[in-house]
Amino acid sequence: MTHIAASSAARVPPLPAAKAITLQFGDNALLPLLLGDHDRHLVKIEQGLGVRLACRGNRVAISGDPLRVDAAQAALNGLWQRLERGEPVSPGDVDTAIRMSETDDPRLPLSDLPAIRTRRGAVGPRSPGQATYMEMLAKHEMTFGIGPAGTGKTYLAVAQAVGMLLAGKVDRIVLSRPAVEAGERLGFLPGDLKEKVDPYLRPLYDALNDMMPGEQVIRRLGTGEIEVAPLAFMRGRTLAHAFVILDEAQNTTPVQMKMFLTRMGEGTRMVITGDLTQVDLPAGTRSGLRDALDTLEGVAGIAVCRFDKRDVVRHPLVARIVDAYDQRATAEKETRARGKAA
Hints:
By secondary structure, this protein is an alpha/beta fold. The protein contains twelve helices and eleven strands.
């Protein structure tokens, strides 16, 4: 009996030894900005990475699991470099540093991340998936952004479009969405056609207003430099020297998707965004986004960025909600598979 117990114990891998390091920061005037009011930035890093942090004077001690300690060190160093460059550190920046430091290939310091320049300032990634997506947007003529709500698929695409318009790399921006009801009836909405479809396009207007002053948005909409239109308005057109975004593409049919993709003209960039877990098409109708991915993924010149719950940059509860739905969907799929096997 003793021999068997000893053999079993020998097969159990040892727990990693705890690690402790101390960081020293040279500018005492900047240190309170790193720590946050009442050390709230340190508390956020502690909770986000599962480490213990203690500040004494200009030193911050980190202890815990070795990988987590390394991640916390990378996050603090990245935030410190922001402060040394004269940039502020907000709670959102702390969240970004945590997300970026948790990857196997952390993109820190944060100054090395890609950024999109707009009139409202630079727009940077807040997760590893967003950093990859922004690089794809800059390099590829056609990019698919696939993933759950809150991952910045549409927002970053609009930022890239505005940046290229302001830099003179495209002549106009075309933003589109399929006008598919999500449990509501379009015909019962008041007003003319424009007033009926505008609510579906509101997220695109909101993103535009974040990128440039409101009066510029209105002026450019008036001159046609920016066009926001439902997908049905794209038929029969050739879009040249434009940055074209199709949002909520999971609600297109295969025919609509093919129609949209073949609008691409000379000097045009296209971005297609969507969430395949939120299809509002009638039951039995195949999503044009899924059909396009099955058909086009791997084709030269087309990039596909797949976001997951780790890239959700809205309220932390959103990531947990996405995770809960994913877990239920996985459990239901496994139950169906067992039923078929039986």
